[in-house]
Structure formats: C-alpha cells, structure tokens
Description:
By secondary structure, chain A is α+β, with helices and mostly antiparallel strands. Chain A contains 7 helices and 4 strands; from the N terminus they run βαβαββααααα.
Amino acid sequence: MVTVYGMKASGNCYKVQLLLEQLQRPYRWVDIDSAHGETRTPQFLAKNANGKVPLLELDDGRLLSESNAILHFLAEGTPYLPADAWLRAQVLQWMFFEQYSHEPYIAVARFICGWLPTDHARRTELPRLLERGAQALTVMEKHLSGREFFAGDSYTIADIALFAYTHCAADGGFDLAAYPEVCTWLARVQAQPRFVRMQV
Amino acid sequence: MVTVYGMKASGNCYKVQLLLEQLQRPYRWVDIDSAHGETRTPQFLAKNANGKVPLLELDDGRLLSESNAILHFLAEGTPYLPADAWLRAQVLQWMFFEQYSHEPYIAVARFICGWLPTDHARRTELPRLLERGAQALTVMEKHLSGREFFAGDSYTIADIALFAYTHCAADGGFDLAAYPEVCTWLARVQAQPRFVRMQV
C-alpha cells in the first residue's frame, strides 16, 4: 500500500487524494502541515530534500515528489492517463502549464489570503498574482470552448491537476463568474464517479 | 518534419534543440523573439494562447507547447526516456522540479540581468531569485552526490531539462563553484554524443 505525506487543504496534495479515491486504490495518508514548518524538519527533508508535499512513498520505501509526477505515475495503465502518444503529450502540456502558469499565481494568492495575517507584507504581491492568474484562467476558458475536458474527450489527470486550485480560486480573490466555460468544466469534474471534495 | 518555434538563447527552447540534435531528427526552426513581443502577436497567439515558446508543430499542423512536454513527446521510445515505470516517474519528478523550483528563479535572474536595462525596477527581485535559485542548486548538489545523472544510471531528458538553465546560471549572478557535483554533472552532459552548445 502506498503512503501519501500531505496536507489535505493543499491543492497539490488534494490532486493525489482525488486520483487515489477515483482509482479506488487503498492508501495511507500522513498529515504534514506545510503551512507550519512540518516539511522543513530534518526527518521530512531526509525524505524530500526540496521540502515539499505531496510526497508518495511505496511500500518498499521508494519516494516520489512533485504532485503531477505522482499523478502520472499512479495513473499509468488506467483510463485517467490515455495510452495514445499525442493525448499523453497534451496531458503533460496541461500539467506543465498548471505548474508554471497557473499554480504560482492562483494557489499563491489563495495561500496569502487564507494563511497569512491580513497585514502581512506579501499582500503587496496580490495585484500581480491576480493579473497573472487571470491570464491562466483566460487560456483555460479559450481552450474549453467546444471541449469537455483538457486532453481528448475524457477526464484525465490533466483535469485533476487543473481542478485542484481552479475550483477554490475565489479563496485568492478570483471571480470565476467571468469564466463560464471553466465553471461548466468544474461542474463536469465534480460529477465524475467517486469524486471527493477537498477538505478545508 | 517537425517545426520548432523558438528563441535560441532561451533555455526552454534550447532544451528542444539539444534533444533534436542528439536524436539526429531533422527539424525546421522558426526564430521567435519572445524578448521583443513576438510571442504576443495575434498570429502567434492563434498557435499558442499562452504566448510562450518553445512551440512544436507537427507536419499535419498539430501543436504542442511546454518545453518539458515537448521533450517527453519527442523522447518517447528513445534511450533519452527510459521504458521502466519508476525511472519514468523520476524523470518527470525532476522535470516538474525544474519548472517549479528552478526555472522561475535561475532563468528569471538571467533574464533580468541579460535582457533588461541595468536600472530596471525588476532588479529588486534579484535577491529573492538568488536565494530561491540557490535552494534549487543545493537540492541538485545533494541528489548528484554519488550519482551520474538525475534519473537512473543514464542521460535522460531530465538532465536536458535541468542542464538548460543550470549551465548558464552565472548569467543571473549564481556562483556555480559552490556546487562541485553540479559542475561535474554539467561537464558530463557536455560530453554526451552530439551535444550542441546554446547559441547566445
């Protein structure tokens, strides 16, 4: 059985939880509160020198970090990761988009608004984060026009990766009403079999 | 024959060039100067709504963005991307690390130092970029201790992805002498068959 080290309210960790639930694959969950330094202890850094969750541990002790690499590994051979080479390329394209052009703005705005004091210096970052996050949502809105899912015609780990922080973007100050295709897609993801909500 | 839209001095674009040269796969290269707005024209945005290079175009017009998704697609079935599931997971782990914890600091510091005027307001970002970039280099240094390459025992696209901006980190103000394992690995990459230098 695999073990996931993570924080349930982190979108990156929730991605892994959601996929494991949908795969109906048993797993052990170890809570690690990254917002309170638990990814920076010597014990945790010995497992992941980059000091981040989620972290996947196999029952033989092998360790894998990076949420989207974990999704890709767990989804291999399942309907959540297509076998077709071009579809696989598109899945990865959207997962790299998520980590580079989406998460650093939408997740970070949510972190600043939800986890830091209202007078924290990092609030000055918010205007730039809202601008860049809106660019990412606009790219998603455009892509979803006439499409049901991000890669091909079915629900994949690309959707899981992008759902994680998009569905709670309002927590960081984004108004999703401006992105109707994105809202319809969010509902489509929530209607998938064995969908579970993020615990906040 | 595939077409690559890119800027030769961009590490993200150079990754694709280096792999194609090492694969000895013919390609057409279309110069797009992202530093001077050429990724923001209506023509280019019609090809990639996210307005970034590199962009891969197949001969039937299909398009793929995100440098590391392009590497993964092109390397499939070649020695640059192992067939073993666990090695593939590690390759992706390091490629996501590169895009999230390395490139946003090391590449951005290089961009600010090399492309913006010396009195540009963004120079105030440099101390934070140098601190975070140093953290990434420290993670790499630790991982490379006792290892020749990032994933498994051979040169893969994980090495290509990380080489691109690490080898020119000094351009952004990093002192690589503090990372001897990284320096030895850089030389090991440069010694690979059909290696080509980045054109700057």
